[in-house]
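Course assignment 3, question 2. Fill in each field.
Student: A.L.
Task: Predict the tertiary structure for the chain below.
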Amino acid sequence: MQSKEAMRALVAFLISSVAFASPQKTAPATPAEARYWPETTAIEGHLETHWEYGPPGFGETPKKDSHFKILVMRVDRPINVVPPRDAPKDSNDIDPKKDIRRVQLFCSDGVSGCDENLKQLTSCQVRVTGELHAQLEPMDFYPVNMDVRRMEKLNCPKLGG
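Answer field:
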């Protein structure tokens, strides 16, 4: 009789433990390390376009300021950007940036994949390869930007990829 009661108590304890246990939290993704120019880096994520104000006032005089779209990649995994090996002391690309989740992209004419991907891949996962730079110019709206050399779709069910 006692063993039956002990078994019931054990089962009740186990059920209450499971019922009141806190849910497991998943650990955030560990940032990947990337290096500034002249090293080439590949990052994966999803494209976004954002409207920004440009000169003359960069939003301080909206009626006079230019207004344009910029291309941004929301990275799948955060990145920590560090200086290149043997970086010159006078380089702009020596300040490390941590936990970067968005990178502004600059596509030059003729870059493989840019033109076709800009219009159709905002809902698709893509990989961009190029050189990373620290925010320096007035048109750099994010702490890190990339001169894109290649863009390719990775996962895009709507477009068969």
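Instructor remarks: Confidence is low (pLDDT under 50) at residues 13-27. The first strand starts at residue 32 and ends at 35.
Grade: pending
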